[in-house]
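Tokens as discussed.
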């Protein structure tokens, strides 16, 4: 349900990206206009479905979007991997580690 809602909102606001879920934690990469992304982060911060939200990296997009066609790609880690390793990461290291998780992503609504 959350993924379907996010895909709809992302389409309306020209946000693209990927969400990875390990059964307990979520890690998401989003791209869009700075003001739109800032507003998204503010909404997520006050959404009671999200606890301990932490921004690992926030930067101005250089060049083209990585996920320009994805309203919200979705990957469920069901092979024993979890997202706890991201807790200690930030910046480009967080992005690189996140992108390694994306071999199989559900792109459809």
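Sequence:
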């Amino acid at each position: 349900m959350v993924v379907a809602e996010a895909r709809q909102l992302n389409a309306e606001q020209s946000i693209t990206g990927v969400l990875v879920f390990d059964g307990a934690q979520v890690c998401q990469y989003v791209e869009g206009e700075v003001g739109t992304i800032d507003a998204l982060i503010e909404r997520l911060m006050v959404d009671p479905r999200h606890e301990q939200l932490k921004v690992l990296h926030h930067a101005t997009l250089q060049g083209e979007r990585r996920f320009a066609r994805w309203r919200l790609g979705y990957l469920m880690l069901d092979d024993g991997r979890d997202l706890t390793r991201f807790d200690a990461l930030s910046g480009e290291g967080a992005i690189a580690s996140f992108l390694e998780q994306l071999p199989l992503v559900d792109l459809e609504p």
